[in-house]
Amino acid sequence: MVHISHFTDNPHNSSIFGSEELSLARHSNHSAVTNPWEDQDVKGSSKAFGLGGSLHQSTAKTKTKNLIAKDKVTIVTPTTSMSHNVTTKLEQFCTEKLLQNKRRLTTLYGRQREIRLLETELNQICSKTTTGTKKINGKDHETNSHHRSLCLIRGLSGEGKTALALSLKDPAKHRGAFFVQGKFDLAQIGEPYSGIKAAMRQLCREISQLPPRKLSDPSKRPTLDDLQEAVAEQLDWEMDLLCQVVPELEVLLKPAAAETTKSPGPLQRLFSVRDCMSQRVISAMSTRKVTHFQSKHSLRRVNSHDSDDKSKAIEKTASLKNPFRSSIASPHPISTESTVTTVTTTTTTSRQRTRKQDRRKQQPGQKTAGTGIQRQLVVDETATVNTSTTTEEAPLRCQKTTDKKAGFRRQKTAEAGLQRRPTVETTTINNYNAKSAGDRLQFAMRKLIRLISGFVPLVLLCDDAQFSDTASLSILKGWITDDTIPSLLMIWTYRSNMVDDNHFVTKTLQEIQSVQDEKKIAIHDFAIGELHQGDVNAMIADLLDIPPEQVKELTAIIHQRTRGNVFFVMQYLLSLTQKGLLKYNMGCCQWNWNLQDIQFGSTATDNVVDLMREKLEQSCTARKLLPLAACIGTTFDAQVLQAVITAADDYPIFLDVLGSVFALEQSDFGGDIDNQLHQLESEGFIEASSATTFSFLHDKVLEGSISLIPEAELDNLKYTMGYILLENQERLEAQGVEQLTFLLVNLINPQLERLPAEKQIALYELNCAAAEEAYVAAAFRRSAVYYKAAISLLPERHWETMYEESLYLYTTAAESEMCLGNYDQMKSYSNVVLALDCPIQDKIHVYRIIMDAHMANAEVQEALKECLSVLGSLKFHLPKTLLGPRTLAAVANIKLHKKKWTPDSLRRLPVSKDPMDEAISKLHDSLIIFSMMTWPEAWPLCIIMACRHVIDRGLTRYSAVPFAWMTMIIQNVFMDFQWAKEHAEVTCSLMDKFQNREIESRISLVLNICTAHWTAPIQLSGKALTIGYKRGMECCDLDSAFWNAHFINESALYSGTNLALVEKDVESYTKNEMDYKMFKHADCLKSVWQLVLNLRGRSSNTTILTGTAHDEEAALNMLETSNDLHHLSHLQKDRLFAAAFFGDFELAANLGLSTIDMICKVLIGQYSTLVSRFILGVACYEMARQRPKRKKEYIGAAKKQRKQIRKWFSMGCPGAHHYVLFLDAENAASKGKLEDAIEFYQRTITLAGRTGYLHDRSLACERLAALYLRMDDVVSAKHRLIEARDLSEEWGAMKRVELLDEKLKSLF
């Protein structure tokens, strides 16, 4: 063996040098292996195994000759060590040469059919078939035809699933589509939405590369400005929420909007409570002396916050659109008596991000200051609610410093020793609906994807879906089943051997397939397998740049040992180069091998993991670094790995673990870790994702690395690594390392009982942080696990030393289990709290969780009993006997003592000093809802009891809700519209007084469905209800939001809005309710949807509400057993409407006579009661003419309805005017006063046309035509029937048009 230090300038000398000499010469001045024959700009996917294409020997030969330096040759006598060194470097060169050849390949082998199908789907979503235009900021944008496709790529690991999906990346970019990838990782399975977040971050990078409008070709769309304008117009609170989850989405905000401070959302409010709780945890766990009664009621929270300019603008708009918000200020100013002082504290909105940014900005030695949202705590009863004082002016000063030794978010007061912080009630948390929050996040993400895919087709790769969490699968299912998303190609790759029939992926796919036809989703299932020997032969030929017929014998050996697994084939070839069995001869510029040596010199392994393990064991660098990196995850940070390795000096226990696991000594861990990682990258084990972030090249590399660790030692090693990282957490965070929370808890939690007592505080905080992040992201499965770990870390006497924290943890853990449907575990946590000897107010939220569990199971009666039981323990009792007379007496008492209920007296009510009153107000609100659904006899009494509690005890943040319900009683029992209007204005002022947006949707619902339409046109209620719907979605009040949505559609139907628009809206709202699992709301709205479908002629039925949206018979059978009067009333009034407008007056009369009392009693005050009474009156007048024997009965019922509607009109109800004229016409016709009847009909037609009631005008024309026929005036009858037909067509009721055409044919 010779060592070459210089090359001769004789070109003929190049032929005498073997590959070993040139390899050594090439590596003489470089520590890292590089290939001089490789172009510097060659790029390719390092994971695209099995790519093919030909290399050119002529190019390689030319570069070889150019590389040889023109110098002299110095021959040195070889030694054993030099020979070994040369051999090692030769093997390294051959390995790198093979890897570089692989990166040059551009074709997949054996996947041509799958690629064609994928490209076909890509062409479908990128097709430019336009279906119309939409306006965004006054600019027309084309809308493309919708196409959504789901491609499933399943197979064993290493068979090229990801490579097949990535083959669409370049074609997608060429077609102008976004291609984004999100990989789910087993090590990150505890982090909610990890894969979706990764995909969203990549999507943000793609969006940021869009050109601005001023630099863009007008013919090419979209631009970044177009997308930002669309986001500004269509997304409001959704972007606030999404930017909290994925901060990179701020690229979609215009610069001015991105800089605007957002008002705190539910996520931020949750963090504010958590931050206050965190400091108390440290104090309580350190002192272990303070009982839970000490200073328990010293301070109370007032959940109010400053709104930004945008919020104020929305409030102003709402006040203009809501008839009850225009006069809530002077001349009746809000009283400032007996109110409370507020102190402003500062909390963080993002636990890791804000702290990291602050540390980057701080000067050496400077302590981190608190940043984030300002929250308010009640400390006195003598100042104004909305007046904030600074921290220096407040009686209590909480000076925060950062204790360097304390770790994550640990603080102490400036005074000596640790003091307990004032109690902060968890009412904000209790108001935060966990399920609703997750639904809101899914809704916001779906709306964003809908917007983006409307501009640019989107290809989304979800890699390793078998490791995804249920919350992520729910979001992905929502995207692919949303038929309003225009252009989406979703690709899932998963291992078929890891997904069985009970796996979450299988269940999600079954749910998607169940609606495949309805949602028009194209689903393709690619079950890829091993390559055939011919494909492997072509792949090896291209890798070695040798004609296929010359490698057939080599291929036969490799295919036999790898079974055609693509990744296995490549790794086997690399193993041959590392063993010197496959060499590259640079003199001949070709690969050489000996089949006999390969046959007997290479070990046959059963699987690729064994082969990877064998390769790893041969590399000292890989053997010492990759198992540690594998414990971190598929993607790891070099700084984290460095912290673990450099800790060997300080942690002897770590050396013991390393010695027992890897047989390595401390000296083996020397050297620069960056160089070592880049060496592993050149050897084909890992790839660089960023400057400090690396990823395993393939899952099998990770599995092989893990297999180096004995199974018995794996948890021990992970625990030791977690302990070291916990010690170095602050330093790593200061260096910018993110996502440490989930990494630490996942490493330590399996053996948390080993953790020293002094470290349990830090781990407790980390589990709380992880649990709450999972909680607000609706990843309840993970939040339940982390809450359980946090509870296990509580000290033995935690109920005495950490009362508030323990109460919070058990309560929230119970709610997480309830959201999962684990009711036994929920009861376990709940029973612990309910068994405590503590004030009832501390148990109220647990009771509410139990009530929510009953409601989730449609057990409304059980929820009502639970609510009555809790209120009974608080000395609030409903009478068990003579309920009707007692209710009447209570209502009469309000009229008798009207002065106590005037707007002025209510405005002067003091603010309650006791936080328990707020909790009771919330319970009363629940009781009102439950009684309305199943106990209407007690409903008014429940409202009165709630209002009396407020008058006796004072105002709270929730006092506006019972007074809104009281407006209904004033409106519908006392029939005093003016008093009701004034009362509604007071209700709005009380809501604004406390700045409580959580109840705004409920207030909007109650006032606009039961009060507003009595003094204003029904059309105005629809606009106000839309604002209420948005507020409910924003504040997690889905119940109120979707009831607002129900009455948006109902008011549109009753006001004569075009049925095509109503059909579109009602379908959209119903599907949203189904997506959010709000099945009761959806069931009530489905009958309206089916009614619209019947009128539109999209069903074979007319008066029977059965079709694609609803099954009338099944609904009636279900409601008979459930005793749900509320739902039944909604269904019956829809049946009544259908019977009237399809001319079946006998059905309308019989149905109305049997149900009108229930409808008016249960749906008290709603506009539908007015419509139902009108329809019943018209039907009874018609049946009195058709059934003379029952004429007296029908006429009596008709006059009763007419009298009630006339009374409403006389009191100022604008929607009753044309109904009064209509019934006057029917009454005159029944008495034989035909001329009077014709005049009343004509006035009805004119007034209905002027106010926009197309359907009522059409019905009046039809009834007038029937009167003309009875008078034998066929010409006038034809004229009115034609008018009725044209009006029905304008309304969109095509089925009714068909029926009127049949009548016209009979006349002609």
Automatic annotation (TrEMBL):
In what ranges is there compositional bias, type Basic residues? 289-302
User: Which residues fall in a compositionally biased region of kind Low complexity?
Assistant: 338-351
Region feature (Disordered)? 288-376
Lineage, top ranks: Eukaryota, Sar, Stramenopiles, Ochrophyta, Bacillariophyta
Coiled-coil boundaries? none
Give residue spans, biased composition: Basic and acidic residues: 303-315
Q: Where is the composition biased (Polar residues)?
A: 324-337, 364-374
Q: What is this protein called?
A: Transcriptional regulator
